[in-house]
Design a protein that fits this description.
The protein is an alpha+beta fold. The chain is built from 19 helices and 18 strands.
Length: 620
């Protein structure tokens, strides 16, 4: 059901009042993360403020936890509506590639996800918004500011998309007048008539930022002005503002059919709470103690001078300048009736131990390990010992953050499908898929190929970073707990498990074939001319299989071509006879006759083997 602007304005006013303390707590974390908090020193008149002279432990906790959580990449799985239909399975694969393409287009793995993890760790919640990009005609993922995002009230364990959400952002009066002149001009005219065109109040309204709200629900998107922003920038004070309900700027239909916003929240006991929200006071105490210690050390360097009068005589300074000269100037101070002494103090011996103890308390509560920031206090030398002491295996905080982020990414993927089907239903999209290991393009039409928005986003091993993932997967595969294919699917370096498996088998077969070829060559089973032909073909093409195939075809053609017995092609050459280096002898060619010496020898043999003639008769 569509809401009116008055209803939206009242809802936003209630939410901002209710979430005010939480937003203030988030802002305190942000100020200390950015190093904007200074330590006042009220004990000395005129003493300037001092930036916290301690490590920025809040930034260390947020950066370390978020970078480890974002070091591994999540994986998308899209189920097919009917696993027995090839068309349904193809569409599921196309949908998966399209979602990866939207991730790549929005730089989700490089920018969106690392920043969202920082919001989740520091604030206890994060915001990801899917908006239509009318120039590229596709969906784009953006990071919302949790400090100015007000989703609908829901149970802490609800990870679905909110029913509605209001996003507050600041714009100047000149920006509003330029983009929405028809709506803003009556407002400014009313302010001029009420306060005066050149009054101080009117100048303040023209120079300050105005809080604008973008209201999104399942039916409509509304853009409006709430009122001038106060100095804290958290909640507008509209009690003295010209308009208490703001001004409506524009309303249009929400074609996505859902609220394209993911606002997951960190699991806590009661309310939204970041990992370091309760530790800001401890950090401030550390900074104050350290600042006082630094001030005491500075005072110890420059000693105080004390003039002690003699016999009740008032000391007099006899310098011509009338003031005490600094010893670094080289001038002499002349004092009458007084003894000059130096009073030099030293910093308290317990300050450092107290600061170290407070830092230890912070590390324990915030989950910051010294090894993760480069400190090795236990003289560890082996990598295994460092990993065990640094708790580098499975971190429960990272595990919980990654699992919670997958629920938010699931909503983001559903919003991508809804935005592209709602705003660009019949646009034939041809984009680079961005799917790890898929270097081609994906072609799809949202209204045709997006038959479902169901998807699952998972991390390979929640709670592990990329350094320990290889060891965990290798041990699981080596012990037979999971197959190699599953291990490749869970490892972030395996960009395409199916393609990697085919490539690994092909490389193993190629290595086996190369080993057999080298063994035959060493044994002399391959003619030298054929071996050189393989080497020449491989140099030209770079493909061993193609080089062997061409050399084999040439050898078969040579062996199948008849040649006269006296021709060079029928001779073995450098190879041994019978190895296949020679061509077959042509049976139709005339066989040369025997040599004369062979004929004489044959005649002699025949003569010797012939029976002797009968003896001649003797006359009587």
């Amino acid at each position: 059901m569509r809401k009116s602007f008055e209803e939206v304005s009242n809802i936003m006013s209630q939410r901002r009042s209710h979430d005010g303390p939480t937003i203030v707590q988030m802002q305190n974390v942000a100020d200390r993360y950015d190093g904007l908090v200074v330590i006042p020193l009220p004990d000395v008149e005129g003493e300037s403020s001092l930036s916290a002279p301690t490590p920025n432990l809040i930034a260390d906790v947020i950066e370390t936890t978020s970078m480890r959580a974002a070091s591994t990449s999540p994986t998308i799985y899209c189920p097919a509506i009917n696993h027995r239909q090839v068309t349904s399975m193809d569409r599921a694969n196309t949908r998966r590639r399209a979602l990866y393409s939207a991730w790549d287009f929005s730089s989700l793995l490089e920018v969106i996800l690392p920043r969202s993890y920082r919001h989740l760790v520091g604030y206890g919640t994060n915001c990801m918004v899917v908006t239509p990009d009318f120039d590229k005609r596709r969906a784009r993922i953006e990071v919302g500011d949790p400090l100015s995002t007000y989703p609908s009230q829901r149970a802490p364990e609800d990870t679905d998309a909110p029913c509605d959400v209001g996003r507050v952002f600041g714009r100047s009066a000149s920006w509003l007048a330029y983009h929405y002149p028809d709506q803003i001009k009556p407002l400014m005219d009313s302010c001029s008539n009420r306060f005066g065109a050149h009054s101080q109040t009117m100048r303040r309204l023209q120079e300050c930022l105005w809080d604008c709200v973008e209201w999104i629900d399942e039916d409509q998107i509304m853009l409006a002005v709430l009122g001038p922003r106060d100095q804290a920038g958290i909640q507008s004070d509209t009690s003295n503002a010209p308009l208490s309900l703001g001004t409506l700027l524009k309303t249009w239909d929400n074609r996505a059919g859902m609220v394209p916003v993911a606002v997951p929240r960190r699991v806590t006991l009661h309310q939204i709470d970041g990992q370091v929200s309760k530790l800001t006071g401890l950090v401030d105490m550390m900074g104050k103690l350290m600042a006082l210690d630094v001030l005491a050390a500075e005072k110890a360097v420059f000693a105080d001078f004390v003039l002690i009068g003699e016999n009740g005589v008032t000391p007099q300074l006899m310098n011509e300048s009338g003031h005490w000269e600094d010893g670094r100037t080289g001038k002499v101070n002349i004092v009458k009736g007084a003894d000059v002494k130096l009073m030099q103090g030293a910093p308290g011996p317990l300050t450092h131990s107290v600061v170290d103890r407070l830092e230890g308390y912070f590390r324990q509560s915030g989950g910051l390990n010294q090894i993760s920031v480069g400190e090795n206090t236990n003289s560890l030398r082996t990598g295994n010992a460092l990993a065990q002491m640094g708790a580098m295996s499975i971190d429960p905080r990272i595990q919980e953050a990654q699992r919670l982020m997958t629920r938010g990414l699931k909503v983001v993927n559903e919003a991508i499908v809804g935005v592209e089907k709602g705003y660009f239903p019949n646009h034939k999209a041809v984009f680079f898929s961005g799917w790890p290991g898929d270097f081609g393009h994906v072609e799809y039409t949202p209204a045709k190929d997006f038959d479902s928005s169901e998807n699952v986003v998972t991390y390979p091993f929640p709670g592990t970073d990329i350094n320990q993932l290889t060891v965990a997967i290798g041990q699981a595969v080596g012990t037979g707990i999971i197959p190699k294919k599953t291990g490749r699917a869970h490892h972030p370096l395996s960009q395409n498990p199916e393609a990697d498996e085919r490539q690994i088998v092909a490389e193993q077969l190629m290595e086996a074939g190369l080993g057999g070829l080298m063994q035959q060559a060493a044994q002399g089973a391959i003619p030298l001319v054929d071996l050189m032909a393989i080497a020449e073909n491989y140099t030209k093409s770079g493909d061993l299989a193609d080089a062997v195939r061409k050399a084999d075809e040439a050898a078969r053609a040579r062996q199948a071509t008849p040649a006269p017995a006296s021709a060079p092609a029928s001779q073995a050459g450098l190879a041994l006879p019978g190895q296949g280096a020679e061509s077959q002898v042509d049976e139709a060619s005339p066989i040369p006759g025997a040599q004369q010496g062979s004929l004489d020898f044959a005649s002699l043999v025949n003569a010797l083997q012939a029976s002797p003639p009968p003896p001649a008769s003797v006359p009587a």
